[in-house]
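worker-03 picked up job from queue 'complexes'. Input manifest follows; three sequence lines, order preserved.
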Amino acid sequence: MALIRVDHVDKSFPTRHGSIAIMQEITFDVRDADFLAIVGPSGCGKSSLLRLIQGLDRPTRGTIYFRDRPVEGVARGMAMVFQNFALFPWLTINQNVAFGLEALGWPPEKIGAQVERYISVTGLEGFEEAYPREISGGMRQRVGLARALAVEPEVLLMDEPFSALDPLTAEGLREEVLQLWRDPQLPPEAVLLVTHNIEEAIQLADRVVVLSRRPGHVLAEVVIDLPRPRDRKSPAFYELTDRVYSLITEGGTVASQGTASNGEGGRPG
Amino acid sequence: MPTVYPKGSPTELLGLLVLLEGHKGSEDVALLADDLDLEIDEIFPSLEFAEVLQLVKVTDGRATFTELGRKLVAASIRERKTILREQLRKTALFRTILRALENSPNHRLSDEELGHIVSFTTARADEAEQNIVNWGRYADLFRYDADEHVLVAVRRPSPPRSGGRTPPPSAPAAVAPSAMVAERKSTGADPPASLLPPRARA
Amino acid sequence: MPQGLKVRHPTEPPRVAEARTTVRSRPSARVSAVLYAAVPLGVVTLAATGVVLSPGRVLGYLPTASLDVLYSFVRMVAAYALALVFALAYGYYAAARRGGERVMIPILDILQSVPILGFFPVVIVLLVNLTGSSGPYAFLGPNLASVVLIFTSMAWNMVFGVYESLKTLPTELREASDTFQLHGWLRFRRVLFPATINRLVYNSVLSWTGGWFFLVEAEIFTTNGRALAGIGSFLSFSAAKPNANAFAAGLVMLVLVIVALDFLVWRPLGRWAERFRYDQVPSGEGDLSMDRDPSGRIRRAASFVTRGVRTGVTRISTPFVQLATIRRSPTRRGAAAVPRAWTNYVALGGILVLGWLMLIAIIVAIYQVFSGPILPAVRLQILQVPEAMGASILRVAIAYALCLAIALPLAVAIARSSRASRTGLPAIEVIASFPATALFPVIIFGLSRYLTPQGVALLMLMTGMIWYLFFNLLAGARSLAPDLEEAARSFGLRGRGFLRRVLLPSLFPALVTGSVTAFGGGWNTLIVAEYLSVNGVQSLNVLGIGQMIDIGYAEAGGIPLMVTALLTLVVSVIVINELLWKPLYRRAVERFRYD
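worker-03 finished. Artifact:
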C-alpha cells in the first residue's frame, strides 16, 4: 500500500502577468519502508512539492493522499527537517526538540522522557541546555532531526537537509541519518528527501524521482539497488549518477521527452 | 610540532572518517579532499585533529585509519561519543582544562580563564575557545553556561574505562582534590598542572 | 603531522582583536563616558549663567529636584505601560490580519510623520475642559495630556517593532510552527511573543530616550501657562530666576536617573533579549560571542538617537495616495516598483490643501457657533500663519545646513579613526541618550545675553536636530563595505578621489535617513524654540509656526489660532515629506544601497 500518493498534481502561482506553473502532472508513490529522494535542478519546485505533501500549501490541481486520505491542511504523521534548520533561537535544544510534542499536548513527564531519548539517539547529549546559536551547523541539524523524529512520524520529510552544511559535516551527518534510518526501533516508516545533489540522492535513497526544470514534471523514477554503505567510486554508482544527470540535462531542453521516459522507471542498467 | 586545540566540529571529524572509509581506510590526502571538491586546507584542520585523537595516522601525505579510527566509524552514534570522550581526555589541552576546572573554587572556569589556557597554543583564540567548548560539551566533559560565559564541571559518578595510556581519574568526583593528586602522580611524564603550553604528543 | 603539507593559518584579522579589547574595556569606558558627558553639561551651565556654582547649595536643591524627577518618572512609566500594551495589541493585529495591515500600517505612518508636540496644546485644552481648570481634578488635565504626549512619542516605534518582528519571522520558523501544528496560546507563547521580544526591548530603549525628550519639552512648554510639576518645569523655572545652583541640581538628578535606568534596567534587559534574536543565525560554527561587533554598536547608537520622531518616510517610501492600492511586503520595502506619476503628487497636494482649508473653515465656524466671534487680534494673527510657516521652514532649513556642516566632517573624521571612535563613541552614546531639551532653558535664559532671539531659536533647533544627522552619518561612514574600500585602495584611490567617489556616495542613504529624522526632530523642537514665557515674563518670541501655536495656547480666545497653526504645520510637514524626502529616500534605497 502506498503511504503517500501524489496524484497528477499541478501547482502554479499567480503573478501580475498571469500565473506561473511551478510543476505539472506530478505523480508518484511513497511506500512503506521507502527511502525516496526527489532530485531536480533548482527552481523545479521540489521544495514546494514537499510543502504540498505536508499540507502547508494546496495544489492547484490534483490530489495528494496520505494513507489513502486526501491531504487537506497540515497532516499529522509527517514531520519536516528544514534546510536552514528552523530552530527557534530563544528555545534551548531541549525545548526545541520538545516543540512538536508540546503541540501534540503530551504531558510534561512524557515529553521529558521522549526528548531525552531522541537527544540521545542523535548524539546531542551535553547540548541540552544550549541555545541554537551556540552550536555548530552539524549539531543544529541534529536538533532539527531530533525534533522531527521525536513526534514519531510515519514519514520524515527532509528539505535539502544537508545543503546548508559544509561538505565534511554533511558527509558525517548523512552517515548518521542512514544509521538512524536503519535502526528498526526508530521512526519513521518512510523518508522523503528533497535534494539538488544527485550523488546524495543516490547515496541515500532506495528510489529517486527525477524532476525536470520548471515547470517541474517527473522525468523518471530510478531504483537504486546498490548495497549500503554505497561506494561513490564504484562503476555502478557512477553509472547511476551519470544517468540521472543526463536525464535532467536532456529533459530540460526537450521537455516532451521527459514524460515519455516516465514508465521506464525500472531497474538501473 | 603543532599545538593542539580542537579544529572543526565533531560532525565534521566524523565526515572526514566516513570519507576515508569510502577510500578503503587509506588515501592520499589530496585525493581525499578532491573527492568532496575541497581544497586540502579545508579538510586539514579536521585531519590534524583526528590525528591528535589517534583516529588517523598521516604519513607521507597519506591518511590511514588507526585501529580506533576504524572502530569509531563502525560504531553507533552513542558509542562514537564515548570513544571521542576518552580520546579527548587524553589530550594535554583537555587535561589541563579539566584540571583547572577541578581546581577552581566552584568548579567553574570563565571564558577569560579559558582564554589564558588557550592563548598559549594559538593566536586564533576566539575560534579555539568556541571549538573547545563545542567539543567539551559534545563529549560531556563539561557544561557551558552561555549566559555567564563559564565552563561548568560535570560530576560523573562512575569512572570511565581506560582506553589509552593515560590512566583515568580513579577517585570518585566527590574527592576531587585527591583525585587530582593521584592523576598527577600517575602521569608524571606530562607537564604539571600549571598552565604550560599543552603539546601534542606525536 | 603529514609531511610536505603545510597549512598556514590565515593571519588573524585585526578586526577581531579590536573587538575583543572593546568588549573587555567596557565597564571603565562606561564610567569615563558618564564623566565626559557631565563635563560639557557643566561647562555649558556655567558659561550660560555666568554664575559660579556652590556645591553646598546645589546639594540643597537636590531633594526638590529629585521629587520633581520622580513626578516625571511616574509619567514616563504610565505612558510606557500604555505604549507596551498598545504596541503588542496593535502590532499583533496589524501583522496577523491581512486586512488589518492595509489600514493599520498607513494610519501609523501618517501618525508618526506628524510633529507630535504640535498636538500637545490641543490635547491639554481638551483634557482641561474635561477635568475643569480648577477644582479637585484640575491636576489631572495637564498630567493626562503629558502622559498622552509621551505615549504617542513612545508607541509608534514599539508598534513597528512588534509588527516588523512578526512580519520578518523567517518562513522556515513559521513553517516549523505549522508543521508541528502549534496553535493558539502555545503558538503565541512559544513563537510569536518571543519573536517580538528582541525588537521590543531594543525599541523600548529608543522609546524611553524619545520619551524623556518630549517629557522635558512638554513640561517646559506648560510653563507658558498651567505649570506641570516635573523636572522640565523645574529646570525651566530655575533657569528663569536665574538660579544656577538649582539648575545644576536638576541636571544632576536627571542624569542620575537616566544613567541608573540604563545600567539597572536596559543593559541587563538588552543582554537577555539577545537570546530572542533570529535575524542572523549563521550556519557553520556556533557563535558563542555575540555583540563583539563595534560597528553594530554605532548603528545601534544611530537608531538610539533617532528617538520617537523617526518619521514615516524611512518606514515607507511610497506616497500615501498609493498606499491603499498596493500590497507591500516589509522585507522588500522601497524596492517595490511604484509608478511615480506626477499626477499623484498633484492629486495629493490638491487633497491636502483643500482639506487644510476646509478643516480650518470648519473649526472657525464651530468656534464661532459655540464660543462667539473670533477676537480681532486673533483674526489678524491667523492671517499671519502662512508667513509664520514660511519663517519656520526657513529656520529649520538653515539649522539643518549648519548641522550638516558640523556633523558631516565630524562623523567622517571619527569613523575613519579607530582611536577616535573607541574613546569618543561611548561618550557620545551617553550624551545622545540625554534629552537635549533639558538644556533649552539654559540656552534661552543664559545665552540670550549674547545672541539675538533669532540666534537662540536657531541654536535650540540645532540641538534638537544635529544628533540625528551625526549618528546616521557616523553609522554610514563606519559601515562602508570592506570590499568597496579594498577595491578603492587596490585601484589607488585616495584622498579627495576616495571621498568623492567612494565615501560620499556610500554615505548617501545614511545622509537621507539622517536628514529625514533631523527634520522630524526640527519640527518637534519648533514648539519650544520660538516662544517661551515663564511666570508671565516673555523670554523668547520670534515669528514662526511654533510661536503661533504657543500664543494660541497661552492667549485668551486663541484656540482657533492654535488649531489653524497646528493644521498648517501638519500639512506642510506631510507635503515636504512627500515631495522631498520620499523620492530621495527611494532613490537612496534603489541606487546607493550596497548589500
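worker-03 released lock.
The longest strand of chain A covers residues 2-15.
Chain A touches chain C through 37 residues (CB under 8 Å).
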